[in-house]
C-alpha cells in the first residue's frame, strides 16, 4: 500500500502507543470523526499495513528482565535449522540476520542472570552454531 497519508501515520503512531484507546478518543486526538478513524483503521488492516495488535508490557515488568544481545556465527547451511530452534525458545524476543562476521543477532530476555546464562548455553550447544558473543544490556537509552 503506497497511499498512506500523514493522518494514517499519525493514526498508526496513536495505535502504537495504545491500541485499546477508544475510537472516539483517537478521533478527538487526530481531529477527525469517529467514523473516519474507524474507516481508516479498517482500510489499513485490509491493506495489511496493520497486521495485528499486541501487548505492551509495563516498564516495571520490563525492568525486572535481564536482556542481552547474542551475536551468533553459524556453520554452512545451518540457518534454517538454527532459526527454527531459536523460534522455539521463549526467551528469544527478536532474531536478525546481519552482515559482517556474525550471521545472526538475537535479543534475549530472561527473569535472571542465571536463566539468561542457561539460554545462552542452549544457543551455543545448538547444532550449526559455531560461536556466540553475548552482551548484557545495562540500560535502554532510546526506545521508539
Automatic annotation (TrEMBL):
SMART domains for this protein: HTH_ASNC
Keyword Mitochondrion among UniProt keywords: no
Keywords: DNA-binding, Transcription, Transcription regulation
Entries under Pfam families matching the protein: AsnC_trans_reg, HTH_AsnC-type
Top-level division of the source organism's lineage: Bacteria
HTH asnC-type domain residues: 4-66
Protein name: AsnC family transcriptional regulator
Origin organism lineage: Bacteria, Pseudomonadati, Pseudomonadota, Alphaproteobacteria, Hyphomicrobiales
